[in-house]
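Table S2 (text version). Query chain:
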Amino acid sequence: MNFETTDISLAHDLDAQDELASFRDEFVIADPNLIYLDGNSLGRLPKRTVEFMRNAIEAEWGKRLIRVWNDGWINTPTELGAKIADLVGAQADEILVTEATSINLFKLALAALQARPNRTWIVSDVLNFPSDLYILQGIVKLLGKNHHLSLIPSEDGITISPEAVEAAIEEQTALVCLTHVTFKSAFMYDMARVTELAHAAGALTLWDLSHSVGAVPVDLNSCNVDLAVGCTYKYLNGGPGSPAFLYVRRDLQKQLSQPMWGWFSAKDPFSFELDFTPASDISRYRVGTAPMLSMKALEPSIDILLEAGMNRLRDKSVRQTEYLIFLADQWLIPLGFTLGSPRQPEIRGSHVSLRHPESYRINRALIESPPPATRVIPDFRAPDNIRLGITPLYTTFAEIHQALDRMRTIVEGKIYEAYSDERLKVT
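Corresponding structure-token output:
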């Protein structure tokens, strides 16, 4: 994709041609002078959610009280799962909204290992989100340290080569557990190929879709994926800490046994039997009572994504990340930045990392510079990544231009030197 000029007029032309431009009006944008490039960490608030939640609180909880469960609340985890299924290429009865991503990963990883009792290897990679690795390490300890966690290396710190993946999966592999789009570099795996390699070796696959769902097209069924998890507060705009989701392929649902035998994973929760009998469907992967207000807040944004369509969102995302990299090549690479994401769009998700020795202070200057300077909110990922999240529902080409121009100004003028390198608790 070729861009002819760095002048902002091109950005305005691209915005004028954007068939998804109207979706920006679906979101609360309280400060039009603030450029938000962190939707890959926390999505913006949809306007529909405000009224939707007012009704959930005042009418449903406030007036209906306990009766609201039989009004339909009890089915919300599976009904929302059915909607997410349309975003990730799954059947309606294969997705469940429940718990947090880490809890879901624990449940499914342990279930997978129990289904392969004679195998002891878990394969992941060095680019995986540390929380996922911590969960896997904890499982290894829980199972008596009889399993081994093998991490596929990266030659460049950005990508994982197909050859390295193939070499890592062998006859003792029980589970291949990877993040589809990696959190730092946005490297995106060939899900179908990796799943094929795992199955050829007799292993199960577990994919983390946290940086994929709502950002790139995913087709779990066509890739024959076994298990998956994902969060909903990034590109799904479900709100801070909104409940996560899990996927279990239909034919595996009765075969696997998840370890947390909670009330709502039982076949008949309200029979109050003393001995556990698991549900026969996806509900067996539930545990406790759903956090209903957090769960209800998720629904309006999923509807918006379904209206926009994942293929259209992906097309815009590719154009916007390509435009961002074009501007970075012209303005920032000469100033000591390096690209921390793949250049090939087919293996890149919807965020771009730019690396610089002073990334943390540059990041703080972007966020904290006083008016009239343009403020930009990206995020920082150690050791030196400024991560710029493109959310096609509401990110504009003009915002990308202004953000990159502001980064150039901060570095050329050494404005970042006025900011502390002391790390805040949340970066």
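Notes on Table S2: The longest helix spans residues 310-332. The first strand starts at residue 34 and ends at 36.
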